[in-house]
Amino acid sequence: MAVLITGIGELTTNDPELGKLRDAAVVIEGEEIAWAGAAADVPDADERIDVEGRAVLPGWVDSHTHLVFAGDRTAEFEARMAGKAYSAGGIAVTVEATRSASDEQLTANLRRHVDEAAKQGTTCLETKTGYGLNVEDEVRSARIAAGVADEVTFLGAHLVPPGADAESYVDLVCGDMLDAVAPLVRWADVFCETGAFDEAQSGRVLKAARERGLGLRVHGNQLGEGPGVRLAVELGAASVDHCTYLSEADVEALAASDTVATLLPACDLSTRQPLAPARRLLDAGATVALASNANPGSSYTTSMAFCVTTAVLQMQMTVDEAVWSATAGGARALRRDDVGVIRAGARADLQVLEAPSVTHLAYRPGVPLTAGVWRRGELLTRGFGSKR
Question: When comparing pLDDT for 111 and 90, which is higher?
Fold first, then answer.
């Protein structure tokens, strides 16, 4: 059945040929977009939904989350707000809780957060393992994630478990753990950072993952300048995430590569780090994505709109740049061309705003503007318009 969405006041497509359209329409058929263009040219459809002048844009593509977890880290957050510095060690608290949780508890928690994100316009979501840190629990996390999320990343190299020897643990990650997890995931990641894994250890993990056919991602340059960006670019990683502290060489390397700089502004705010240098990256020609980094410790939000607002108001990005980075940019970071865009053949992932343009995402900060969401052609939420 073909569904015509009409009455679109502003349509952000992210398609270079279509651009941004006024007085536009979109046709959905099944799970895909069948047509998009000017309202005057609409084809026939079985059903018609009028959004009455509201803005329509692609669903958010959140390319960095950690949502297979149990437990709570409110106390850590309160301590940080009182002045305690953030460190990677807090991950161990979540590891203990996650190992103790049942499959049913972990699945329910993951579904709750994915549904929460979807109601706010997120229609494609990546999530990671990394709170198991042993073979059994990393496999369990990957299996649970694969049943719910669009993209799954293996992050066994999130932290050295308490009491473990770092080199022995890296041996485990590169061997038995990767062998067991690889069939369940598309990506592998490593936390290349002070307090986690150094350059040599990170390189071992990434190369072992590549040998097993997995795509690469890197957590890097979050707590200070370091080897994360350089390693990601050298190994052809799809993205390097955080990028809070970048040297000029890092910026130049990203600009000259296909590696996406994924910025996580909610995490920077929550950890009281400087915001990532989005303007420097964009001006240099780097590809930038925005993601939530939703996790229980350093960024407990699923709101991509909050990330977009922050990028505009505090990171010197334009509204169009921020929206592109949270949609098409996230798709680039996942090496996908079927999401983050509105064009014929793309996945039918759309969101409708309770506003006439995407500018209102930053113009009205903190106001919930998601009026409707389609994911894979299914209308998940609706607070607008007539149907006939």
Answer: 111
Digit-coded pLDDT (tens) for 352-371: 999 999 999 999 999 999 99
Is 221 annotated as belonging to a binding site? no
297 appears as a binding residue in the annotation:
yes
Residue pair 33/46 in contact (Cβ under 8 Å)? The answer is: no
The pLDDT of residue 382 is: 87
Query: What is the Cα–Cα distance from 245 to 330, expressed in whole angstroms?
Result: 20
87 assigned ligand-binding residue: no
Q: Is the pLDDT of residue 387 over 60?
A: no
Q: Please check if 300 is assigned to a binding site.
A: no
Is 360 known as a binding-site position? no
73 is an annotated ligand-binding site residue: yes
d(CA 171, CA 174): 5
Nearest residue to 61 via CA among 300, 371, 334, 343? 334
In sequence order, the 6+-apart residues with CB closer than 8 A to the CB of 308 are 290, 319, 322, 323, 326, 361, 362
Tell me the average pLDDT of the chain.
96
Domains in the chain with CATH codes: 2-58+341-382 (2.30.40.10), 60-334 (3.20.20.140)
The answer to whether 298 is annotated as binding is: yes
Rounded Cα distance between 354 and 336, Å, is 28
Q: Is 90 annotated as a binding residue?
A: no
Each residue's pLDDT tens digit, 164-190: 999 999 999 999 999 999 999 999 999
β-pairing, 60-62 vs 187-192, is unpaired
Q: Is 215 annotated as a binding residue?
A: no
Looking at residue 154, its pLDDT comes to: 98
Least Cα distance to 212 among 177, 178, 256 occurs for: 178
Return the C-alpha torsion angle 314, 368, 117, 133, nearest 10.
Answer: 40
Does residue 99 have a known ligand-binding role? no
Consult the annotation and say whether 202 binds a ligand: no
Q: State the pairing for strand pair 370-375/378-382.
A: antiparallel
